[in-house]
Automatic annotation (TrEMBL):
Stated family: Belongs to the RRP40 family.
GO BP terms in the entry: CUT catabolic process; exonucleolytic trimming to generate mature 3'-end of 5.8S rRNA from tricistronic rRNA transcript (SSU-rRNA, 5.8S rRNA, LSU-rRNA); nuclear polyadenylation-dependent rRNA catabolic process; poly(A)-dependent snoRNA 3'-end processing; TRAMP-dependent tRNA surveillance pathway; U4 snRNA 3'-end processing
Gene transcribed to yield this protein: EXOSC3
Keywords: Cytoplasm, Exosome, Nucleus, RNA-binding, rRNA processing
UniProt keyword annotation of Nucleotide-binding present: no
Native species: Anas platyrhynchos (Mallard)
Name of the featured protein: Ribosomal RNA-processing protein 40
Domain K Homology: 191-237
UniProt-listed SUPFAM superfamilies: Eukaryotic type KH-domain (KH-domain type I), Nucleic acid-binding proteins, Ribosomal L27 protein-like
One cellular-component annotation, GO: nuclear exosome (RNase complex)
Protein localization: Cytoplasm; Nucleus, Nucleolus
Domain Exosome complex component RRP40 N-terminal: 22-99
Length: 258
């Protein structure tokens, strides 16, 4: 993008809905449909009216004056709000599905971090990015100055990014907007941690993922998926955990070949 918000020469523009499933390149601009917020005659009312959701901009995209600017090469994806229809004007999320090697923190992403150090009231976590993330001891459910969480160096933390941009240090929390853990916090001492590609993680987190459904029929287990490509799995007995890892990695080869 050139200075002053003008598009660089050679960049192409296309409708976002028409580009879903196609290859997009850095510099491409995705045009969004108009949303007539003040058209009272067209605004549906009543219990059957569809809610007007917010359009989310995911990895590989950023907002610009014309719509969405592509920053990574890959396939454009779109998810409808709640899995229903309604087009981009009804909300949902756009993102670029790319073969990115290193994880880049994104606000709201839930990841698995490894505690590497403690500096005062802040824990330092390795999240697989270019720099470590910080986590305050108050960012746990029920934590106070007197009641501090029991976190040690080497522990695994499942949390989400509260701050993630190129100008600030990534900051994580283990509570949601209501102050509840919602499954986040220190992961159990048992289990097994391994790493897969970022593309496979997105497939595993998709609704009604066949891989997860098939594994759940074979073994009883606990599974934590981090958007940074880390997977923690715990089963009983422990002997089945390596088997689950092999199943997931075999699924990675199968999905990559499709």
């Amino acid at each position: 993008m050139a200075e002053g918000g003008k598009m660089a020469a050679g960049s192409s523009k296309m409708a976002a809905e028409a580009a879903v499933g196609q290859v997009v390149l850095p510099g491409d601009v995705l045009l969004l449909p108009a949303r007539p917020e003040h058209d009272a005659e067209r605004l549906p009312l009543g219990p059957e009216a569809a809610p007007r959701g917010r359009l989310l901009c995911g990895p590989g995209l950023r907002r610009c004056a014309a719509g969405l600017l592509v920053t990574k090469c890959g396939l454009l994806r779109h998810r409808q709000p709640g899995g229903g229809g309604g087009g981009a004007a009804a909300g949902g999320a756009y993102w670029v599905d790319s073969q990115q090697k290193r994880y880049v923190p994104v606000k709201g992403d839930q990841v698995i971090g490894i505690v590497t150090a403690r500096a005062g009231d802040v824990f330092r976590l390795d999240v697989g990015g270019s720099e470590q993330a910080s986590l305050s001891y108050l960012a746990f459910e029920g934590a106070t100055k007197r009641n501090r969480p029991n976190v040690q160096v080497g522990d695994l933390i499942y949390g989400k990014f509260l701050v993630a941009n190129k100008d600030m240090e990534p900051e994580m929390v283990c509570i949601d907007s209501s102050g509840k853990a919602s499954g986040m916090g220190v992961i159990g001492q048992d289990g097994f941690l391994f790493k897969v590609s970022l593309g496979l993680i997105r497939k595993l987190l998709a609704p009604k993922c066949e891989i997860i459904q098939e594994l759940s029929q074979l073994y009883p287990f606990e599974l934590v998926l981090g958007m940074n490509g880390r997977i923690w799995v715990n089963g009983n007995p422990q002997e089945i955990v390596p088997g689950q890892q092999r199943q997931v990695l075999r699924a990675a080869d199968w999905t990559g070949a499709k």
